[in-house]
Specification:
This protein is an alpha+beta fold. It has 2 domains: 105 residues, no CATH class; 68 residues, Nuclear Transport Factor 2, Chain: A, CATH 3.10.450. It has 5 helices and 3 strands, in the order ααααβββα. The longest helix is centred in the middle third of the chain and has 27 residues.
Length: 176
């Protein structure tokens, strides 16, 4: 992938990388028409995707310079250093953009929770049920107001909830 980057000078590579970071941070991304004679549309899209993913991954996972350079091993030294110099210069800005994107998903925050484990022995339809149920009460603060959310979950729903929370935690840890 990075070998196609060598079609432009290292100086132009720095300029392109800054524009990619601009796009990642919500500003004007690089314009395809500026590079239409250099790369095909498919190459352009692959390059943008690679650079954007590299910047997100490097900042989100706090990857050291050596690992970033290893991911750029296909590029010649001057182009790899150009990408790395932009990454170093704009690290904090990329991190802020990633955090803003994550926090914009929801302004709600969990303030407190309480849970109870119940055993449903029967229902109006089944005389012998013996099903464990988790009663979960969440106190969520959204836009300054505290809102209680109560739910009752069976074993499968608890497993699904735990898996979802673990996945969300993994994403949050990647952004730190």
């Amino acid at each position: 992938m990075m070998e196609i980057l060598s079609r432009i000078s290292a100086t132009d590579c720095v300029r392109l990388c800054h524009r990619v970071v601009d796009g990642l941070c919500g500003r004007e991304p690089p314009c395809r028409s500026d590079y239409s004679t250099t790369w095909s549309l498919e190459e352009w899209l692959q390059l943008l995707d690679f650079l954007t993913s590299l910047f997100r991954l490097a900042v989100g996972n706090d990857i050291p310079d050596e690992e970033v350079l290893a991911k750029l091993s296909d590029a010649d030294h001057s182009h790899a250093e150009a990408v790395l110099s932009v990454l170093r210069a704009r690290w904090e800005e990329i991190r802020r953009a990633l955090l803003d994107r994550t926090s914009s998903i929801s302004s709600a925050t969990l303030q407190d929770f309480d849970w109870q484990l119940k055993l449903a022995l029967s229902s109006d339809k089944i005389s012998s049920l013996n099903t464990p149920l988790l009663s979960l009460c969440l106190d969520v603060r959204e836009n300054g107001a505290l809102r209680p959310i109560t739910m009752e979950l069976n074993r499968e729903e608890v497993s699904t909830l735990i898996s979802s929370l673990e996945a969300a935690n993994k994403v949050v840890l990647q952004l730190k």
